[in-house]
Amino acid sequence: MERQTIPALEALMDAAWPAPDRGEAGGWVLRAAAGVTQRANSIWPRLESNGTPHDRRALLRDARAWYRSRRLPVIFQVFDNAGSAALNAVLDEEGFTRQSETLILVRGAGGDTPAPDAAVELSAEPTDDWLRLWWSVDGRGDEDSLATARGILEGCPSLYALVRDDDGVPAGVGRLALPLVGERNRGGLYCMATRPDARRRGYASLILQILLRAGEERGLDGYWLLVTAANPGARELYARSGFQEAGRYLYRQERPKRHLTGC
Q1: Burial of 196 by CB count in 10 Å (0-12 exposed, 13-18 middle, 19+ buried)?
Q2: What's the confidence (pLDDT) of residue 1?
Q3: Are 205 and 171 in contact (CB under 8 A)?
Q4: Where in the chain is the domain with CATH 3.40.630.30?
Q5: What is the β-pairing status of strands 186-194 and 222-228?
Q6: What is the 3-state secondary structure (H, E, C) of the chain?
Q7: Per-residue confidence (pLDDT) for residue 261, from 0 to 100
Q8: CATH topology of domain 106-247
Q9: Distance between CA 155 and CA 153 in Å, rounded?
Q10: Distance (Å, whole) CA 176 – CA 156
Q11: What is the pTM of this model?
C-alpha cells in the first residue's frame, strides 16, 4: 500500500511545532526560527501546484530570496507521496540533499494504557528542569537558541511530562501537543528524551504511558508521533504501544555554494 499522509495531519504537525516567522510562496509555507530545528526552518509545500517545472523554479527563486534575507539555508520538508514527485524532480535537478527520513506513526484512542507505577510530573508549560533535560539531549545551540525553542514549544497548547530518577534528578521528558486544528481532536507526542546515563530503565515507556492517559482523560480521538527511520529502539517502543506507520517525510536541503579560492 502506498504511503500517504493525510493533509489534515500535516496541518496538525505544523501547528504543533509553530515557526515564529512565516511567509508564503504560491502554495508553499515558508517557516523560519533563527535556525532552531529543521522542522521550524523548512518549507512545507502545503498546496503543491500542478504547474510546470518552470513554475516551481520561480517559486524556488522567491523562497531562496526569503531565506537568504534571514541568513538561512533553503530546506524542504517533503512528504513521501505521489504528489511530491514533481517537486522532488526539480529538487533533484537543483542538487538538494536528502536527509533525516522520518516516520509518521499514528494510533487511535482507547486501548490498554496502564496507570504508571511511578510518579510523573505533569504540567501545562515546560518547567526549567523539563526544558534543560530535553535541550541537553536534543538541543543544538546557545541560550538564545534555547529561548527560541521555548517559544516554539509554547506556541501550541501542550502537556509536559517529567520523571526523576531515585536521586530526584530529571531522567526523562515528553510533550503532548494539543493543537486546535481540524475537526478531529488529536494529540501529537514530541520531545521524548531520556538522559543518556538513564536509558534502558523504562523511563521512556513511563512518559509515554502518562501522556497517553492524559490524552484519554481529555477525550482525544487519536495520536501521532514522529520518529527517525534510523532509530529502531524508539520504533519498537512505539509499536508496542499500538502505533503504526501512516506516512514518511524527509528534509531536502540546498547544498551550500562553494567558491574557488587561491591561485
Answers
A1: exposed
A2: 32
A3: no
A4: 106-247
A5: parallel
A6: CCCCCCHHHHHHHHHHCCCCEEEEECCEEEEECCCCCCHHHCEECCCCCCCCHHHHHHHHHHHHHHHHCCCCCCEEEEECCHHHHHHHHHHHHCCCCCEEEEEEEEEECCCCCCCCCCCCEEECCCCHHHHHHHHHHHCCCCHHHHHHHHHHHCCCCEEEEEEECCCCCEEEEEEEECCCCCCCCEEEEEEEEECHHHCCCCHHHHHHHHHHHHHHHCCCCEEEEEEECCCHHHHHHHHHCCCEEEEEEEEEECCCCCCCCCC
A7: 36
A8: Aminopeptidase (3.40.630)
A9: 5
A10: 10
A11: 0.89
C-alpha cell at 200: 534502558
- Residues with pLDDT less than 70, the chain: 1-6, 49-51, 53, 111-118, 182-184, 257-263
Length reported for the chain = 263
Number of neighbours of residue 23 by Cβ within 10 angstroms: 16
Whose CA is closest to 10, among 26, 28, 23? 28
Residue 164 CB coordination number (10 Å): 18
- pLDDT at position 6 is 63
Which pLDDT score, from 0 to 100, does residue 35 have? 94
| pLDDT tens digits for range 114-170 | 565 568 899 999 999 999 999 999 888 889 999 999 999 999 999 999 999 989 999
| Residues 14/17/22/25 CA torsion (nearest 10 deg) | -30
